[in-house]
Amino acid sequence: YVPSFTSSILLSLSSASPNTSPAKMWQSKPVLVLLLLAATTAATSGKPLLTKITKGAASTALYTAPLSAGRPLVLDLSAPAITTPCSGQTTTVTLSANSTDGSNPLSPVSFAATATCAAAPSGAVGVAGLARSSASFPAQVASTQKVANSFALCLPSDGRTGFSGNGVGAAIFGGGPFFLAPPADRPSITTLLSDGVPLRQPFAGNPGYFVTATNGIAIDGTRVAVSGSGALVVGLSTTIPYAQLRSDVYRPFITAFDRAMGSSAKVAAVKPFELCYDSSKLAPTRFGYLVPNVWT
């Protein structure tokens, strides 16, 4: 599920004609959004697995997790299987992560998984496919660890670490509970995830997942006025650095976001972006920069 857009993935939004089919929505007009992303099926039993997520260089901007003996696998929402360079069609690989209680990593866990033979993306040793498939990484974790076929991603917005950056995220495979980090009183966010917008499979020809915002979009509690008809679809991907919106939604959205942001941090736009802000003038939080919340 995708709850309201509330955590630490830095995406951009692009537009498409209101009458354009979802399979033709890939015209880039980006802005910045913060997002917590999760997808889930029915829970079983056992302990979920936890791993950190890092974001690669600007040339690739791929999200990776150290799942192969500490070596990175690219996390791909659209890929149906685990892949790695090998000969033949499939091979068996040993993958590893930490078990978790939703608050802390507990102990290292290694397990065998079936991988499809394919070339690895630059800077990685393979791909952890997250699409709905019996060969996907979440499905194989569920089968070997006796946990739910589910995952939650908190994606980092940049490749930097420390106070000035937001360079490390987290992935949990196998269900909740999920807790916020200190210094808060560590409330569970499992309920927030369960009340989210359904995360669906990609349209034909387009990578990633999508959500249908049946209740519209609101920025800091103020609904964005949209005049077009048809499903309000938001396309998501971990391998393409843009989310997608219809053009009749994109324009009022960035207008409302710009109004909510104010002008104190605004700087001259750099293509392909229409709105740009000086991050040094934005207050950091544990969810990323303090910017208007976007809700569906």
Brief overview:
The chain has 296 residues and is mainly beta. It is 10% helix and 32% strand. The protein has helices spanning 137-145, 190-194, 247-261, and strands at residues 9-11, 13-14, 33-35, 37-39, 49-55, 63-68, 71-76, 82-84, 90-100, 105-117, 127-129, 151-154, 168-173, 199-200, 209-212, 218-219, 222-223, 233-236, 243-244, 266-267, 276-277, 284-285, 288-289, 294-295.
Descriptive account of the structure:
Helix content is 10%, strand content 32%. It has 296 residues and is mainly beta. The protein folds into two domains: 9-34 and 187-295, Cathepsin D, subunit A, domain 1, CATH 2.40.70.10; 41-173, Cathepsin D, subunit A, domain 1 (Beta Barrel), CATH 2.40.70. Strand 20 and strand 21 form a beta hairpin. Residues 1-36 have low confidence and may be disordered. Residues 87-174 form the Xylanase inhibitor N-terminal domain. Residues 209-294 form the Xylanase inhibitor C-terminal domain.
User: DSSP helix count?
Assistant: 3
Beta-strand proportion: 25-35%
List the secondary-structure elements in sequence, H or E: EEEEEEEEEEEHEEHEEEEEEHEEEEE
From the alpha-carbon coordinates, what is the Rg to the nearest angstrom? 19 Å
Structural class based on helices, strands and sheet pairing: mainly beta
Based on the coordinates given, report the CATH architecture of the largest domain. Answer: Beta Barrel
Kindly state the mean pLDDT as a whole number?
73
Domain Xylanase inhibitor C-terminal: 209-294
Domain Xylanase inhibitor N-terminal: 87-174
Pfam families: TAXi_C, TAXi_N
Family: Belongs to the peptidase A1 family.
